[in-house]
Specification:
alpha/beta, binds flavin mononucleotide, 7 helices, 7 strands
Amino acid sequence: MLGYGSGAMADLLILVAHPQIEHSRVAARLMRRAAGLHASLKAGVEVRDLYALYPDYWIDVAAEQAALAAAKLVVWLHPVHWYGMPPLMKLWLDEVFSFGWAYGPGGQALRGKDLWLVASTGGPQDSYQPSGYNRHFFDAFLPPYEQTAALTGLRWLPPLVMHGAHRVPEAELQAHEDIFAQRLAQYPDWPEIAALEAETACLVPADARPAD
Ligand SMILES: Cc1cc2nc3c(=O)[nH]c(=O)nc-3n(C[C@H](O)[C@H](O)[C@H](O)COP(=O)(O)O)c2cc1C
């Protein structure tokens, strides 16, 4: 699957980044479910499988920005690799969230949209605590994501995370998939959203970067 759904004008934009989706238990399943939703939802859904679209890492920045401009909810769906995002997702971010488009003077394109991280970890939940082998609660790995959202005017929604992805029982995986689908179907009417604070304004001045 490359891009799938109702086209580049979708309200719900699901960006999937998994370097080995053929071996995936979690991301592949959520990607399939999201792609299947577009027929039943009023809001359009577009699923973009970044590793399938860009096997050579040549990202079509204009196409990605057009898909983002149309979206209201942007979903980053990926496994956690080295406590962060897989490399193509990071390259996507470096290239697509550009100065003057996503942030800095004139960089307003993402303001007012929502960003939802849907991730999975190999480490089980109890590894993500001070006494566990990952030494920190999972939230401690999220500030770069949250600040990326704040800098670009995206509202950071509470992430949906599946821990212990390799061993989680089928029933739990199914429940996770159902929550994911339910949230997409109900967006923006989520109970969590009502409790969120207003967006943080982080304005980068024009002279923050040297002139080209
Ligand atoms: C290169 C690489 C790095 C990984 N780094 C982490 C990590 O930092 N923390 C963690 O809990 N799991 C880590 N994992 C495990 C993945 O998060 C796990 O395989 C994935 O969430 C499973 O999702 P999937 O079924 O969609 O493949 C890593 C896996 C790979 C291949």
